[in-house]
Amino acid sequence: MPWLVLGLWIAVLAIASPFASKLADVQRDRAIDYLPASADSTQVAKIQDRLPGGEATEMVVVYHRDGGLTAEDKATAADQIDRIAGAHRLTGQPQGIPSKDGTTLMYPVASTEPGQDEEARDELVHEVRDMAKGGDGLSVEVGGEGALATDASEVFNSLDGPLLYTTAAVVALLLILIYRSPFLWLVPLAVAGMADYLSMGVAYGLHQGFGTSISGQSSGIMTILVFGAGTDYALLLISRYREELRRIERPYDAMAAALRGCGPAVLASSGTVAAGLLCLLAADLNSSRGMGPLGTVGVLCALAAMLTLLPAILVLLGRRVFWPLVPRFGSTPKARRSLFTAMGSSAGRRPITVLVGGAVLLGALALGALNLPGSLKQADSFTSKPDAIAAMETLAEAYPERGTQPISVITPEDRADDTLASIRGTRGVDSAQEGRTGDGWTEISVLAAAPPQSAGETATIEALRDKLDGSYVGGPSAEQIDLKDTNARDTTIVVPIVLLSVLLILVVLLRSLVAPLILVGAVVAVWGAALGIGGLVFGPVFGFEGTDPGLGLLSFVFLVALGVDYGIFLMHRMREECLNGAEPASAALTALRTTGGVIASAGLVLAATFAVLTSMPMVPLVELGFVIAVGVLLDTFLVRTYLVTSASVALRRKVWWPGGLSRAPQPAARQERQPEPV
């Protein structure tokens, strides 16, 4: 049987291989892949694709000299722009716009050559940068929406390799420390790698079959989930398998007993994560909605690998894979007082005190969320400054009195003249110019009087949307407004759905209402505390100028879905002990002693995998990775070990209300075997 399972996995991976290798080809990081599906800015981007020449790549070439531009500088700029116009099909002849202080000259440049082809867009941006060169005190920077998209795409494309290697290295190091074996750590790590490869093939199939959007962010999160969640399942299974090997002689029979013992908990925990992630399908934001299916694919592929391939390999390798700490048949683990025994004892002596103290601590930490910086601007989205951001900063300093980033208005072709006149009469508009026409639509480029992403420009965009009935208002700044508004809307819709889905799964699994409410309440408290810690460090320590609008929703979904995992491991073992005759208080402490080590190990691995995101060069990824990693650690070492255990001890039978365990008298307690420390 193990050989058959191994053969089936080899066949499955062989079938998935051609598809997995194509995942990078369908990864898209254009604005439309992140924008809300129903927003004005999304409609603008879609219609622009259908205009003559397709989607336009818009750039701004910025010439700057601190002491003021010389006549030679201006001649150089004009010559370089002419060469760019001669080499590429531009939408019009660029005109230089000097700053009032004479230090800066900007040339808006747009081309429809690349269309929707991201590689062609990147090539165009690089060619423009190669042709626009400074020197001898003259600085030349290429910014604008197209250049920013190229810089962001290169950052995301650079994540795939480092993210995978760093995650694998972190998991390998932790597994070596946990297992203290030169061989055992290789097995779950190799299986996780195979699961990740399979998930890439399945994700490609989802894209081809259902049009699921795949971005650099969602594919990176999928890899994190495969290694993080998959390793968690492996730790639980291997811990139970090692325990059974001391009671059962044949490894095959011991593995069967281990799967019977922890399989339901693993299935329930993975189902909870999958259900939570699939709730993101209710989101209007394309990036969030696409992350749901991809994250679910990662978790389910990890589950399939850890419940089939991992057991098969472990059985084939036998007991020797645990060397030098081989669990001999009939042996008993070395008795020692573990950290979790001490934790359980303290929670058992004063459960109410521990519960109240922990709740107060989490509440105090959650107050730090009030210190979270405002919405993150495009210019602050990178941890290291690319050329496009440097150009934006130069423009903001040199042109404080005007907008330097176009607002795109798409209006019906037969109303273009009226719309143009209405735009020019709108307060806050500096200038407006009619652009391309096609497919029944006309494009109008608008410059606001206020700088990009300022309160003044936001007011101008909102005024245009209120005034221009039947037209769409988009562009980079409008996209940021839509992202913020849609994230707020998605949060109010997705959060209740996630809570209800997770609660229903827990009720079915634990045959109780009180225990699921405790677990769900605990993970919500952890989420608030983790965001609060983020508020205390993002600005003062990390120097971040803003918070990604999607941080609250995504961190909530991941922390609730993943955090409940550990509650399931603990509560499922507690219920198992109660069914076998233990008193509820004793069952809670026994469950903590038995699963505490594996929960701690799993929590460390999961936190470490998400912490890998903090080394990435994108502020949204750093913030998301930090909040989830901190939340997992709080959940592992405070909530599961102290608060859930103390609540279970304090409530006793009531924790299983209204199930049978809350009413029926328990049979005489069986002789409990000594749990093996992990």
Describe the structure.
The protein has 678 residues and is α+β, with helices and mostly antiparallel strands. 62% of the residues lie in helices and 7% in strands. It has 19 helices and 8 strands. The protein has a 4-stranded antiparallel sheet. Helix 8 crosses helix 15 and helix 10 crosses helix 19 (619-651). Mean pLDDT is 86; it is low at 666-678.
The coarse silhouette is elongated
Number of helices: 19
Strand coverage percent: 5-15%
Distance between the termini: 29 Å
Strand order of the largest sheet: 2-3-1-4
How do the SSEs run, as a string of H and E?
HHEHEEHEHHHHHHHHEHEEHEHHHHH
**Rg result:** 29 Å
**Count of beta strands:** 8
Helix content: 55-70%
Mean of residue pLDDT values: 86
Taking pLDDT < 50 over at least 5 consecutive residues as the criterion, the unreliable ranges are 666-678
**Category by helix and strand content:** alpha+beta
Instruction: State the major sheet.
Output: 4 strands, antiparallel
